[in-house]
Design goal:
- By secondary structure, this protein is α/β, with parallel strands linked by helices.
- It has two domains: 6-165 and 327-339, 3-Layer(aba) Sandwich (Rossmann fold); 167-266 and 278-325, Rossmann fold, CATH 3.40.50.
- Helix content is 37%, strand content 14%.
- The chain has helices at 6-10, 14-20, 38-54, 58-67, 83-94, 116-126, 139-147, 167-180, 202-211, 231-239, 320-338, 342-347, and strands at residues 22-23, 26-27, 29-30, 72-77, 98-102, 129-134, 156-161, 191-195, 218-222, 244-247, 259-262, 297-299.
- The strands form three sheets. The protein has a five-stranded parallel beta sheet with strand order 3-7-6-4-5, with helices on both faces. A five-stranded parallel beta sheet has the order 10-9-8-11-12, with helices on one face.
- The longest helix is centred in the C-terminal third of the chain and has 19 residues, at 320-338.
- The structure holds N-carbamoyl-L-aspartate (NCD).
- N-carbamoyl-L-aspartate is lined by residues 83-84, 160, 166, 169, 202-203, 264, 301-303.
Length: 349
Amino acid sequence: MSKISLDEFLSMRISQRCQYFSENNRLLALVYAQQFDRPLLSNLFSLADAIRRLSDSRDGRLFLRALLADRRAMLYFTQPSTRTFLSFAAACHILGMNSSNVRDSTTSSEIKGESREDSLRIFSLYHDLIIMRQPEGGFCEQIAFQMLSWPGRKPIINAGAGMDQHPTQALLDLYTLQRCFADSGGLDHKRIMLVGDLKRGRTARSLAYLLTNYSGVELILAAPENLAMGEDIKEHLRENSTPFIETDNMQPYLSKVDAIYLTRIQDEWDQGAKTSMDYSRFGLRAEHLKSLKADCFILHPLPRRQEIETSIDADRRAVYFDQAQNGMWVRAALIAHMFAVDEKIISHR
Ligand code: NCD
């Protein structure tokens, strides 16, 4: 790999930066959702299916646990997390990897003035994989680039970068959708509505990127006017001929879509006082269920607040808890891919 500076790297087109993070069709770092193409998605989903199947039996679980028993992962999560943190930890354990974590930078030497770059370099000396969530959009990309020049070239996975991207959440969202549509021709030609804070919701942003890998997918982007999907994503949708409609009223589309992906208003990013705006129009209530198609699936990355009434949980179209569990399987698949044990899993009888 040629030596280039961080500034040169950051000035490269996104497609070149994506290439930089993979080698021989294998990801060295996962930073952006744009790194997934359709063949890789399909391989990861088959791998997730195989891991899920093997996990049904004790023999299967012991086989999986031996695969990366000599490896260690570091979970560096300085933003709140329940599902992502625990499902990554569980994914590591499924594959036999030990995991350590820092969840609060005030308990590490950052409080003594150590730079985060130095802290991460230290983590990479003790571990074989870094999984990282933090509040700044560009930091994971910077560290992923630097990591490839540090001894050991340790892989890194973006587990949520500020308001920007959350590629593994998008991966599990897509895996869930793909399973939902297994008997209805798959994801191609489906109409999917993304609802809520599409401006600052990194999960919806990453999912929009991933959905451009499927042909004939149409998106309805339903958001409050001040929280509409970013221009960067819309540009990507246009470049990839993925048609989309923007609206601040989800109601007329409820009966027309094959899946609804609701998201939380990300008000932790609000400046100053929390906004008192009423966002209830961007929530699904029991009375809406009769408007939905009989096979329209309801997803949410969680945590939810008022976006989905709890009485909806019992509806067979509500798949958000399956979706959360799917995170464990796809994250195990991703780690297995990065550590090149995927063939062993697929060929195991
Ligand atoms: C999301 C996140 O952290 O971006 N949560 C998750 O990872 N499942 C969504 C959110 O916090 O609203």
